[in-house]
Every structure is written in structure tokens, then in C-alpha cells.
Input
Amino acid sequence: MRIAYIAIILFLVTLGSVVFNFTTPFHFDAIGSNWNLIDITVYITFVVCGIVFVVLGLLMAWWVYKFQYQEGKFAEYEPENAKLESRLTIITTIGVVVMLAPGLVAWNDYINPPSDAYELEVYSKQWNWMYRFPGADGIFGAAHNKYVNLDNPFGMKPGDPYGEDDILITNKTVKIPVDRPVKVLLRSQDVLHDFWVPAIRAKMDAVPGMVTYFWFEPIVERVYEVLCAELCGRNHFNMRGEMHVVSMDEYSTWLNDQVTWAGLQAGAVPLSPEAATGRDIANEKGCFACHSDDGRQLATGPTWLDIWGGTVELIDGTTRERDEAYIVKSILDPHAEIVLGYTPTMTAIELTDEELQSILDYMKVLKSEPAKTAIEDEQDASNTLPEGESTSEPTEEPVTD
Amino acid sequence: MATVEVPYQETVPLHHPKTWIGKYIFSQDHKIIAVQYGITAMAVGLVALILSEFMRLQIAFPGWEFMNFFTADHYYQAITMHGMIMVIYLLTAFLLGAFGNFCVPLMCGARDMVFPFVNMLSYWVYLLSVIILMISYFVPGGPTGAGWTLYPPQTITAGTPGFDWGIATMLISLAVFIVAFTMGGLNYITTILQARTRGLTLMRMPLTVWGIFIATFLGLIAFPALFVSAVMMLLDNFLGTSFFMPAVVSLGQKLDYSGGQPLLFQHLFWFFGHPEVYIVALPAFGVISDLISVHARKNIFGYRMMVWAIVAIGALSLIVWAHHMYVAGMHPSFGFFFATTTLIIAVPTALKVYNWILTLWRANIRITVPMLFALAFVLTFIVGGITGLFLGNVIIDIPLSDTYFVVAHFHMVMGVSPILAIFGGIYHWYPKLTGRMLNDTIGRIHFYFTFIGTYAIYFPMHYLGFIGVPRRYYETGISEFYPIAAHNLNKFITIAALIVGISQVLFIYNLVHSYFKGKKAPANPWGANSLEWCTPETPPRHGNWEDRLPTVHRWAYDFGVPGEEKDHIPQTVPRRKAN
Output
């Protein structure tokens, strides 16, 4: 009898899959939240499906080996076997119920946050994360994409008293206290995003035009990387953030240091007309999707703060003077010289000479010392700025509710 | 079966073309149209395959100088085009356009499709859709890079490559494809319902025809949803309507939209997208059932159950679509409903798998090349099916969605599996189509490379999803969840993908070489029973049959009937009078 190699291959593939499953280091990493029930459901599913896989794979290999062709032999003639088929139906149904039931119980928990959960808003935009806490009154002020402008990055509704004490974090890092359930509310400024920390297990899309949510309770003090899990354009893979799970004390101290909406409005520093024009043009051309102008380090591109002058290390190992020629070249031919640590994702921006000059004018004033820029997070901005002139009224377009 | 009157197609004379162009180019012969569909689908599939190799090289070797030209934009355009081409322009077109056209009239004992002219038109409109799709690469900005799911607002906002022209060609191409599909689909259904020959009751039809039949029904129900969403998105993009677009600020610019609903698009898309999985899977189920039965020399186990399973899966597939949207932000209670329907669909699907395997029990198995592909299909489909039980269970989908687990799952279940079924089908029907046998040795080498290679690509890939490697990342960079071992696994997967890709040259060589130099095929080389093997000539001429259409006396699975001389009895052989 000819050896049926395929029987051996089927056997080895089945066996190899099982061995791989038990020897691979690639399984869920240590859970950082309350969602044990997810892991348990996955485990049950692994067991049920694993058994089915092994039994079916081995049966195939065995029968292919055993019932090979012999000239003149007839196969057994048995078109149907109602008893066997109904038994298999029942067994399969039981298996499905065993997997589905804990899953639905866990889902019920997932969509019903506990009443003592505090709220954290994640506001996403291409391509970074921003965060908002409701502040002392515990209530978020109304916000809408239509109010968004350079001085109102969260789209806070002007004049809403609940919004004044909201704490706004434009930095990519958010800190949350350990062992406290948090309901994460998600909004988006532009496209779909998805706030995801693998070790927390939970995630949900942020959808512009609506507010979505999920909840979890962090159980381990640790720094987590935040990823975007929903394709959001050419820099999707660079949309990273950090979530620090810390003690209640550290959280409170940190939160007190963050700027409120009222503070942000009071702290805005007027720019020279040339620089302000440059800033508006840069915004309209989408520059701030990838570059910050306040020193925040985004994964997408270098910050513009202090970009004028000094040297920079390039991806090919050379060092380059950051003079005007370099900056102009980087804008007009962005892939020519890539700064170390970044990927070439910038598309060439079409600019008139005047627009280019305005942007350069704006970049020139972006110095960390001594002058501060407009939307830099400052500690309790209202105390440090005696001028107190607010320039943040949304004036870009008439607002209608 | 005395109730069947004279079949309609026996009473009307067939108009035979006089010119070469009428015979082979603007042909109304279903077999030629099948070949045209098949070659076009394979050609465009080759483009998608090459795109995937570039994607894999980028994933495994980011920063490699050779790949410098391959920017993030190129990567996102490649994933989009790869996905859309494979799902629509290769799998749907091949399984329904090529197999549907070839198998339906022959297996039903018909001379041709009921509307041969519309059938011809279907192919040419399909070709037009492929050309429009390929034009994407030549419009300003290149093809769309929105991912094959084309989710707005991303699709038509400036942060996505090809957001203006590329998306337009994509949507127009899809709309044109749907026109082509509708013309073909109406033909398949009408032919199956109206042009079966005498004696061929529905419950005597080969399972291939059943699979194509129900898949076409699904297509005719599901594709309009995609058509509508394509039209609405074109309106949003070019006329400034707000069907799917809420008020957004895109890269610093306030766009003039408000009140639209991105989730509406997702519902429409998946109302099409999920049945689409079964539009591809059901014909593959049918083909595999026939291959296993014929080459195992045994009747398919539980034929009636297999038919009802196809019908049940088809019906259920229309009410599970939102399991693609568990993390989309839809109403949370939907999760209960869609998780339950999704896991219910596992029952008829599992029964099909059981029945394929039970068909092997006490069979008389010929390890032919089509049989190899059929066996590989079953194992691959088992993996793809059980990982579907992970993702269908809403709570497990939460950590795994948008990771490589999903990528591995859908490639196993609706990438590799249907491709294996297509290969198996080609090796099986090529002798009837061309009158030549394919080279057996090359076929076996091609099989082992393809089966073991694809398994090596996609089985380990599931586990990358568990550690949290997100899909659709141009570059993952150094992250704590992404250890060096995972980088190495990605390199391994890429090498396997390259080997699988290159080994397809063997297949193409075999197809071309055997057409000219292959062994002459006998009329029924596998000893099969269904009608396509009973044609008076091989390859069958235009019109398929003599003046009289064949008469069917039995189902297509009379293998190893006790007391008979031969181990198979064609459908045209009369049954002996019961004593």
C-alpha cells in the first residue's frame, strides 16, 4: 500500500499546532484590570475548541491513512445516520452554550459600569490622545466638535458653567488611580479611533458625533502604553499615548497640577500678528496633527518648540544644523532628511511663499525660554499671568446650536 | 419521476456563433465566460498577492533600505487594495463567476444559462470594474488607503491617502462590479430553478450547485447594501451631503458636514460584508463536498443535512453582521443578540465539517491532487471556524478585535480555505474544461507548498493577537507588548509568505503547460457521477449535449452501492426496478 503522506502531514500539523500552543510565549500578558472574566471565557473557549480541533484533526489523519484506495474495494454505503447526526447536533449545541454563557455574563458586566465609577473623557484626534476630567463639580461641560479651534482644543461650549473647572490634558500621558473603577467616555474630533491598552483587555471605538464608553478597574500600578486600535489614517501606527496607573495620592497631586478650562482661557498669551497668522496657516495645513508647538513629544513628528537653531541627529546617523534652509527643506521635501526616531510619513505640503514665511515666523517665536507659548500647560496659569487677557473666544465662525 | 415535462432548453434551438470573436471573445457560451472570469480573477488576484508580499516585507523588515520606497501611504493603499481585490474581485468573481458559470449549466443538464447574452454582459461589466479599480493606481494621490472596510469619516478626509480620487475609483468600481454580479446572479438562480433537466429534482442536485444557489441568493440580498453605501459615500464626498459625516475638524480644518452617522455606514457595509463571507464560503463548501465524495469513492455523508445546513447558514448569515462591530460603539445590548446568533451559526457549520470527515470513514480514498486540497481545506476551515467562536463571542472580541488574531482568523476562514477549494476545483474540473490532465507531480508539489506554507503563515499569527499586536500598523516599533521574539515570528511568517507566493508560479506553469502538452483526459477521469462528466464530448461543445438533454435518475453520490459492478453510478443511469 502506498504511504499516504497527507495522513502524516495532517497528523503532524495537528500535533504541531498543539505543541506550538503550549510552548509559545505569545499569550495574554498579565492582566492589569478587573476583567478576569474575559480571560476565563477565553480559557474555556480554548479548552472546548482545542479538544474539537485535536479530535477532528486526528480523526482525519487516521481515516485518510486507514481507508486508502484499494482496487475493487467498495466504500461502506451509508447515506445518512439520523441518530449520529442528532447526537452530534446536541453535543455541538452544548459546547456552544458552555462558551456563550460566561461570555454573555461578562458582557453584561462590561456594558454596565458600577455606580461608583468616576468619569474620564478621552478625546481623540489625528494623531494623538487628549484627556478631560470633570473637575471639582464632577460634571463635564458640554463640548462639540463645532467649537474646536486652536485656543479651544476640546471644543468646549463657550459659557457653559459646568465646563470652567474641567481639567484638560493635551499631553499624551494620563494618570489614573489604582483600584478605582473608571468609566472612559470617548469622543473623536475627526475620524474613528480606538483607545486600547492590551493589558487592560477593554477597548472601544471613538466615533465623531457620538459618545461611546467602556469601563475597567486598574489593579496594578504600572505605566501602560496606549495604542490606537482603529485605522485612522496614515499615522495610525504612531498614535500612541501613556496611561500611568498610580496611587491615589500621586494621582491627586498630579491632577491638581493640571490646567482647567478656565485656566487655559486665562493663560492664553497674545501672539504678534505675523506669528498668529503663521499659527493659523500651520493649523489649516494640518501641521499640528503630527507636530506639537509646545514641547509635547508626539510619535508622529518632532515638536516645533525650540526647533529654530541648534543641531539635530538624522536617521542616517549624520548631524545637521537646524538653520532656515534645513527647515524649509523639511517642509517642502519632507522625506529628504528624517530626524532620528521618526518614520517618513509626512506628505509634501503645498504652500505659497507668503504662507511658508508666516509659518517660519511662527516657528521663530517658539522658544521655551524666556517667552512661553500660547497653549502650553502651565501650573495654575491664572496665578502666574497678571495680564489675564482672554483671547480664546471662538471667533472663527458663527456658532449655532 | 414521470412528472417532469420536456425541459425548456430542449425546445429552443441554440444560436451558434459563426466567427472566432463570437466564439471566444464576445462569447455567450457559459464555459468560455467561466474561463474569462477565471483568468481575469486570477490576474487581478496576482496583483493582490504581490501587494501582500510587499506588506509582509515591510512588517518583517521595517527600515530595510530595499523597502525605503514603500511609505506608510503605500502600505495603507496596499492593505486596502489587497483586501478588496481578494474578497470581491478574486474570490467572489472566481467562485461564482468562474465555477458558477462552468458548473451550473453542466451540472443541471442545461445547454447554457437561461440568459446567455446577459451572462456575457456580466463578464464584460466585471472586466470594466476591474479596469476602473486598477485605474486607482494612476489617479492623483493613488488608490484609497482607508482599509478595505472603507470606514468614514476617515475614507474621505485628508489624513488618508487617496481620500479624493482613489476613493472615487474604488466606489465606482464596486458599484460597477455589483451590476455585473447582479446580471450573473440572476442567471444562476433562474437557470437552477428553471433549466434543470428532467429528473433532476432539487434534492438530487450536487452540493456544488446548492452552494452556488444559496450564495447567489445571499449576494442578491447583500450587495445592494454595499451599492447604496457606495452611492451615499460618493455623494458625501463630491456633493457635500452628510449621510455618514458628522461635524468634524480634520487636520485643523472644519469640514462642512454635520449630523451624519459613521455607524450607519458600518451597518450597511457589514450587512453586505458578513453575507459576503458566506457568498465565498458556501460555493467552497459545495465544491469540497463533491470533491471529498468523488475522491473518497463514497457518498457524501448526510446529504439532506448538508443541504439544510447550507440553507440554514445562508439564512442565519443575514442576521449576524454586527458581530464585526462589537467595539464600534453601537448600542451595547446588540452584543447579546449578535453574539447569540453568531454562535448558533456554528452548529450547522460544525455539522458540515463532521459530515466531511465522516465521509472519510470506511471510504476508499484516492489521494488525488483535488483530494489533497479538499483535505487541506477541511483542516484549515476547522482552525478558521473555531477561532471564529472566539471572535463571535462578544466579550472575547473586545481584547482580540483589531489585532493579528482577527487577521489570522479571516485569512484562514475566508482567504486560505476558499483558495484551497478553488485550487481543488480547478484540479478537479480542468480535464473536463480543456480535455487535458494537469501534471500530477507539479500539482502535488504546489499543494504541499501552498498548504503547509499558508498554515505556517496564519496559525502562529493568531498568537501575535493575544500579546496585543495591532493590525494595520505600518511599523510597530519597540513596545513592551511587542517582544523581540514576536519580531522574529514576523520574519518567519514573511519568509513563509514569500515561499507560498513564489510557489504559485508552479500552478500557473501547470495550467499553461498542460493546456498544450498535458495528457489527453478521458471523459470521466475521476469516476464521478454528476452530469458534467456525462457530456458526449470532452471538452463539451457549445450547447453541451446532443439534441436530447440527459435524463437524471438518481442523486450524484451513488458510490460503492452494494451489489453493483462498478463503484460509481452516474446520475443518468436508470434505477433498477425495486422488487
Remarks:
- The CA atoms of residues 275 and 317 of chain B lie 5 Å apart.
- The first helix of chain B runs from residue 8 to 11.
- The mean pLDDT of chain B is 94.
- DSSP finds 16 helices and two strands in chain B.
